[in-house]
Amino acid sequence: MSAASRERGGGAAASPLAGMELAIFDKDGTLIEFDWMWAGWVRELADRLAAANGGRRLDDVVRDAMGVDIETGRVLPHGGLAATPMARLREALIEALTVAGAASPRLAPGEVPRIVDAAWHAPDPVVLARPITDLRALFTGLRRAGLRIAVATSDDREPTERTLTHLGVADLVDAVACADDGRPVKPNPAAIHWLCRMVGVPESRTAMIGDSPADLAMGRAAGAALVVGVLTGVGGRDSLSALADLVIGSIAELAADVG
Ligand SMILES: [Mg+2]
Q1: Which residues constitute the domain of residue 100?
Q2: Residue 256 and which of 42, 139, 189, 249 are 20 to 30 A apart at CA?
């Protein structure tokens, strides 16, 4: 092993994160599959609506109202889920079912409030979270290569901590910055500055990894040494390339080869 790789903490030579001492990950779309999470919730909602509607399925109405392809799990870019605040989604569903009920014998319009009441449930991020890769293996390898690990998310602390515990990586994450912590949100760099202070690593030895332009703009504004875009979430290659040092398919490509 060379002196240089010893200095880096043991040779993460195969990882784009070589030379870094802190990796800050976004959560939704970076560590976990954003589309799948919402699609799973919409599938469950469709099942519960059918149960409340005497077994008559309303999947087509749900799919159109929510903007999710229930078969593939794809969230359509201009559909209900992508473009409507959570608080409005329930009303949007009632409106769509009322229109559908007027046109179809599957559903009596007067029944719509009852079946939506019976079926509606808040999405549970713990149940719905699906990791992009084996997070425990990835984080363990990065830590062996000398990196500390943090998460900066636009989700709140309680569901974020429950999700990391459910994914079996809470003990591998050194610090977590969440939307309800009271700091300015992305792309403001406050979360990165705070995480660097918490972990004791300077921004000049820190990488920010995320799926959205806001993640990458935050990394740049904070002066992070490396800004990495991943294509597993909302951002496409074009929108991320303009802000990133590097765009990769997924966090799986960050795995450190520590032999
Ligand atoms: Mg994200």
Answers
A1: 35-127
A2: 189
